[in-house]
Amino acid sequence: MDVRRIKASRTRRLQALGRTGPLIVGSLARVGVRCGNPNCRCARGERHTAYVLTSKIRGRTKTVHVPMGMVEEVRLWVEEHRRLKRLVKEISGLSEQLVRGHVRASQAARATRRSPRRIPSRLS
Length: 124
Hints:
With 124 residues, this protein is of the alpha+beta class. The protein has one domain. The chain has two helices and three strands; from the N terminus they run αβββα. The chain has a three-stranded antiparallel sheet with strand order 1-2-3, covered by helices on one side. α1 (3-17) packs antiparallel against α2. The longest helix is centred in the last third of the chain and has 43 residues, at 71-113. The two termini are 52 Å apart. The mean pLDDT is 90.
């Protein structure tokens, strides 16, 4: 890829960052829970469905209950965070390509300046 294409691609991704919506760090998980009522179906093994959001804080997993009415909204927030992480990784990769290209060009320019001159032979 040439420099112009890399920069254009990076610019498009940077603009996409500006269209970031609400987000949340973590994973949404469906879990089975028991309510504690001895006459409920969950007492016989058929658990109720619940959702939790899990995330790591200082190396420890934190779990937050997600109300059923918010599950779809939280799912969108989690996906938005994942999209944002992908974008940042792509932008970083494109920026690294620009740096590497600049380094290669600089090294090539130095190599041409340092190329050995032909010394005329003294054959007589």
